[in-house]
Every structure is written in structure tokens, then in C-alpha cells.
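Worked example 3. Consider a protein that binds S-adenosylmethionine.
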Amino acid sequence: MDTIALEDSYGRVATDLRVSLTDRCNLRCSYCMPAEGLDWLPGDEVLTDDEVVRLIDIGVRRLGVREVRFTGGEPLVRRGLIDIVRRTKAIDSSVQVSLTTNALGLERTAGALAEAGLDRVNVSLDTVRGETFHTITRRDRFDDVVAGLAAAKAAGLTPVKINAVLLRGTNDDQAPELLRWAVAQGYDLRFIEQMPLDAQHDWSRTEMVTAEEIFASLAQEFTLTPTAEPRGSAPAELFDVDGGPATVGVIASVTRPFCGDCDRVRLTADGQVRNCLFAREESDLRGALRSGASDAEIADRWVVAMRGKRAGHGIDDPSFLQPDRPMSAIGG
Ligand code: SAM
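Given these inputs, the predicted complex is written out as C-alpha cells:
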């Protein structure tokens, strides 16, 4: 079968597919959703396991997808996750399969996920202080995350990466201690600038902690030098920590956008293709699936959806409008 590239009108080719398996989450991170949660998608709107696997199969075998990352919401709350991972890896074992997770429950499932073919995990952890964790996530589960991280490492889901968001007045003074801890544990830490994707629309350009501030804070304790390897399409700028081998990354989506190198495409839990995290339009693959479209027809629809990808997310543009869906419903 010939492969059609998911190429946009600027020549960028998407090979990295982010698949949201649910919009539900068991944490309530203040920069993501309100304390009371959100109106979750009705069950019948969420793709079934078979539908998810079919779309991934189309992505991999017809459209050149080389990496599949499961996310959400919280993907570990999806009952069929282990089976979905196993079936994804069975499509093509050379496709990299990873998970972005808050690690609640990972202590229990890491072994089975690795056995099913999961290659690695990205765990979200914004602090190594239990009380700050509670303030940010509104849940008292810090020890579970630490246990989940250890289980991921023991299961060989490596390199184990940690994603951290700094919030002004909450944990913006904790970057060095987070890095010190991550290096000691053997985890690869990446700081992500806070983006305008919260359900409450509280994000503010002047309040967010910038990459510049993160570098300044880390420089108080560490010497950072750009790593030798080229960045390619990776969102993180990587630095050796005190000469290496440990590294730290900064994903400066807002202040140093990397849209020109973007190779990502997203599938929401209800089967909508989004060509950008900040896209304002989606293409309905679930409708096509459920109305009996063939794999070739679905692939064509997906290709068309990618063509309209904008050159950049435009956060700094005065006409920028936050997408209707928050991060948790898109898939981070
Ligand atoms: N529940 C999983 C987790 O915790 O990793 C996956 C979904 S979560 C939405 C994915 C990532 O998005 C997390 O690392 C989280 O910190 C990040 N995130 C959520 N809202 C964000 C925002 N407004 N700006 C930047 N990152 C955000």
C-alpha cells in the first residue's frame, strides 16, 4: 500500500500522533481545569478501543505516522489502555509508543504496559514538595506519583521524562530543587511554559513564567550548555547539566515557538483530528468511521485536515483566540 504523507501547505510532515484516550482526569491542576472538574464527554461520543486502534492503524500504515503518544485527560484511567498499547505495537513494532501521564496508578501498571510494548513515559510533576503538589493539583497524591515514576524506571520505560510547569507565586522558585531531584533519580526533566489552554481562561502573558526566567533560576545552581545533538522537531531545547551526562529541557512554546519544525497531529478522545494544539477547527473522523467510510476515505479526510495547518500558533498575535477546548479535552 502506498503511503500518503500528512503534509501541510508549508511542507511540514506530521509523523508524531498524539492520541487522547479520555478527557477525564483524576487530578485538578489549577492551570488546567477548575476544582469541580469539567463536563466530561458523554460515553457514546468517546471512540471505542476498536475505533481508536483502527484510526491508529490508518495513521501508521497509510499516512506515515512513526510515533504514537497516548495522552488525555489521564490515559491511565482508560480501562482498555494496556490492550490498546498492545494492538498499536502489533501494527508496526518499529513505531515508538509512549504515554503522557500523571503517574497515578503507574506503580501498578508499569510492568504490564512495558510488556504490552510501551516504549517510554512522560510523567507530569511540577514540584517535589508534597504541600505544593497538593496546592497545584488539589489532590494529596504526591507519593503515588513518585512511586509511579520508580515503577516506570524499573519496568524499563526509559528514558523516564518529567514535564514540569512553573506557576508564579506557587512553584516558580523550585526549578533548581526539581532539577537536583530529577538528576539524582535519573529522570530527564523538561520545563514547559504555561500556555493559554486552561478551561478557566485565566492564563495571562504577563503572569506566565518564561523560559528566560527558568534559565536564570537554574543558573543560580547549575551550569547549562546546549547539548551537541541537533534539536530536529523536538519541542525542547536541551542543555547538559554541569557538563552532562544529565540534561534538562525547556519547552518555550510561548516565548520561542517552534511551529516551523512541528511534526505533530492530534486525535481527540471523540475522534476529531486537530492539526495544531491551538487549532480552532477540527475534522470529524468519528463521524466518518461510524457512517461506514473505508480506510482509504478516512485517510483522505485526514490528509485534507492537515493541509489547513496554520504557519504558527499565533499566541503573540493580537487576534489570537484560545481554542474552544481546553488542554485536557484536546490531549496534551
Ligand atoms: N494527565 C496527563 C498528564 O498529567 O501528563 C496527560 C494530559 S496533561 C493535559 C499533559 C501535560 O499538559 C501535562 O504535563 C500538563 O502539565 C500540561 N499542561 C496542562 N495544561 C497546561 C497549560 N495550560 N500549559 C502548559 N502545559 C499544560
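Take a moment to read the result before moving on. The first helix runs from residue 49 to 63. The mean pLDDT is 96.
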